[in-house]
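Inverse folding, one chain.
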């Protein structure tokens, strides 16, 4: 058996929980540890919108009344869009005083009015309706938009593909190192994995809903990644 340089026989990666595939290695057993990365992409099939209404008035009651009127319009618009109640959730509600700028005059802070903010998170199960939904929300009275997030309803198949690609990537790297070191790969001794991650990937794919005033938006793709560390016995 040829002896290989130590530097060529180990490439250690820090990973998460280890998936044990065999008993502990013998003390004199030589191994090669290699990392692999896998990625799978797909168009998102879910999108969430964080939208709401902010109103101001001289009194808290007046600001709240104005906000309530406009939010009723927002909820009515969501109902017309066919969004089920389970997909609508209030995520923030606040009433805060507004103060006059008295820094230059040195006066004590003085309340000039009140601001009311009411925000909801809306989940759309049809990404193609996003543009029309944005237009409908603004038309109904929403004047705050705090983000659009795309996601995949069932990411498990993508994660499986990413994991398989990560193992294949680790094997390809290991075979390259083994050939360079003059050794051959034996059976896999262990596999460890860092958590699969879903990451947004923006692509130049414009999407328009059927409504003539629909807002143009880009759905892009979602990317699921997996990183593994594989230990081989070497001969």
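Residues assigned per position:
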């Amino acid at each position: 058996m040829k002896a290989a340089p130590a530097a060529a026989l180990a490439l250690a990666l820090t990973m998460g929980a280890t998936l044990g595939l065999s008993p502990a290695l013998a003390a004199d057993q030589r191994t090669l540890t290699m990392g692999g990365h896998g990625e799978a992409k797909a168009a998102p099939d879910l999108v969430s919108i964080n939208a709401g209404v902010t109103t101001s008035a001289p009194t808290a009651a007046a600001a709240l009344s104005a906000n309530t009127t406009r939010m009723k319009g927002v909820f009515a618009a969501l109902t017309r869009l066919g969004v089920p109640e389970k997909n609508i959730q209030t995520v923030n509600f606040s009433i805060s005083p507004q103060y006059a700028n008295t820094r230059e005059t040195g006066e004590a802070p003085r309340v000039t009015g009140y601001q009311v903010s009411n925000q909801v998170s809306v989940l759309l199960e049809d990404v193609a309706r996003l543009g029309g939904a944005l237009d409908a929300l603004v038309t109904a009275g929403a004047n705050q938009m705090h983000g659009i997030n795309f996601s995949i309803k069932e990411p498990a198949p993508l994660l499986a593909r990413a994991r398989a690609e990560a193992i294949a990537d680790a094997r390809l790297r290991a075979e390259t190192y083994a050939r360079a070191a003059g050794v051959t790969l034996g059976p896999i001794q262990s596999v460890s994995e860092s958590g699969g991650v879903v990451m947004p990937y923006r692509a130049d794919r414009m999407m328009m809903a059927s409504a003539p005033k629909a807002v143009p938006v880009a759905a892009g793709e979602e990317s699921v990644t997996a990183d593994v560390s594989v230990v081989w016995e070497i001969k």
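The longest helix spans residues 156-181. The helical segments are 60-80, 130-140, 156-181.
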